[in-house]
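Re: Re: token formats

Sure, here are both.
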Amino acid sequence: MTEKYTKGMFIVFPAISMLLGWGLRGYIGGGPFGAMIPGAMVAMSISLLLELPVAIASAFVVFGVVGIGLGGEMTYGQTLGLLKSSDTMWWGTLGTTVKGAVWGLLGGTILAMGLTFKRLSQRTIVVSFILLLTGMLIGFKLINQPMLIYFSDPAKPRAESWGALLLGAIAVLVFLKYKAEANAFKIISRFAIWGLIGGGLGFGLGGFWLVLGFHLPKEVIFQSWWKAMEFSFGLLLGGALGYAAWLSRKEFSLEKISHPSELVVPKNSVLKEFLFAGIIGFLIFWLIAFFLDPVVDSGSSANGFTMIGLTDLAKIFSNYAFFGLIMIVAFMRFPSMAWQIAISLTFCHTVIDLVEDFSPEVSESLLTAIRLLIVVISTGLVAALTARVQRSKNVVRNMFLILIWSTIVVAFLRLTLKPETLNVSGLSLCKFVCGKFFVHIVFTLSALFCSWISIRTFNQSSKLS
């Protein structure tokens, strides 16, 4: 029987989706919250290819923003800085490969838990995240804090967490090996392995763009070496996760999913959706950080192994893994909130990151009010659109389009923060395309490609909704 979607489609579509998401992550939102963008995009592209029912797709996307976001806890700026010198280039390359592999391993594991969440009990999911946090604490104390293996600059030490995430991922996989059904664990381990391969290759090989940039004259037109690295990372990790989905396609054919009642029928009013999303956003974007960040910042910076104390616990509970647990528990308690968590909260942080750089010459109190108003209004518009689409046809496809173009708008709005960047007088076509606006051209072409594929290929509301 002819395959509906080719292996190439399973690889290329998630690869370009994650290339776009990863590039946007580094441009309109950093850290783990910024990494929610590629997490959501790759999950939605795979959901479309597997033709998942909306309930499963919505869970998959929530686990995607959590799983891929986790790797954003790792610091890697100084690791990439090691690529400048021939004396440290290969150590830096090893560091980027290890960190990329850990990012993909843990991201693939949590992502696949969303694919199989109907086969996992809620208790198993919660315990998995508790073990993740425990493993992270142990890994931090045993590997990262004593700098047992260190991939940053010893002269200006920064706290690393790749060992913490690695032990956390291992703890989750070992637990699921014994608690999950055999078929479910097969899928989870498959995504974990291919995530590890794609992440390691993506970050490790992507770093060579920076090596090239460091050794070329500063006068060359192309200067976006960091973005080229991010695009490569997203491309290879997304392609690897897409390949894992292709290997799992028969297990997720609609004929084999015997859950006819799993269409998402909203049980909450739009007002309740807004209220719950607002509470979750307030909790993870501000309240927890407000109380715990001062404890973390005032803690000891000792490099050796020390006993677990208040600072360590504060680090765990102000970590994105704990925020991820909050989002997962909220989804399990209120399944109809899935899209607000995955789309609206992901978009919200991009606006928060944008307005932090928005500084008109006004009083501090007025500036705070303006920033808050921009965040509330823009996020409210996206949340309203998300609520509307959730109650219509072609839910997954249209949610994907909402996230793509809302984040693209934020990316282009960021250009206006520095009006001088819009000055194109005297620019040759090569300098325009390969120099000044290369990143935005890639954003636009990738967004158009993903939108075109989504609209042309995935217009089967009877199956997807």
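Second one below.
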Amino acid sequence: MALALLGALLIGTSLGLMGSGGSILTVPVLIYLLGQDEKIAIAGSLWVVGTIALVSGLRGAWLRQVDWSNVVWFGLPGMLGTYLGAMLGGRVASSAQLLTFVGVLTLAGIWMLRRPGLPAGRVARAPARIVVDGLVVGTLTGFVGVGGGFLIVPALVLMGGLTMQRAVGSSLVIIAMNSFTGFLKYRHVLAERDLHLDWAVLATLAGVGVVGSLAGGILGRRLDQRRLRRAFAVLLLATAAAMGATTIHGLVRSHESGSGAVPNHH
């Protein structure tokens, strides 16, 4: 549990610092450190991430770091996409979700390593592209249980015309909207499979994550964002490699045991 709490602190701190990144570690923490079923972990991740993002987003709103028009343009299509993604996630094998998750982790890591500095000034808004991006990110959120901040923040800067600070604040509100929408849909998925959430664990992780996010928000102006992003990208890529190897190994073993267990009807 100690490693899981450390992971929750890292998740929250990353969200507070960069408005992205940390939430993508919640699923691995719940599956590999706490031994939860994949469907339960995805649902629990959505609640934990939503709670942390909501508290941090409210802090950003209090400090006037949230652009509500962009939240509407991005967040409402994102909520629809999240609902559809959660619906799809409930109908496919957990291995398919995990492999998709590994792909998202890998892309996030590469993106954070290679992404150039985002412009600090305002650029022309592109509402139509924001809507499409919101729908795509929302679908990913619902399907694999990630917040999607690593896609939301640059989209808000490049297509929404926001400064980095306001993009981070707005991203947190959008992540909360998407995550809670996906979580509500996933409750039905769990009920159909007679699976149950461990609320004590989720509340503990969310509480530690909130402390980390508030600390991250305070530290954000003092630390080198570029170095932070690179270090976190390496962590994401290492996690993706470990998860990918574990998932593929499990699939191979399942296939082999299934092949060897064919009943003899003669």
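The radius of gyration is 18 Å. The longest helix spans residues 225-260.
- S.
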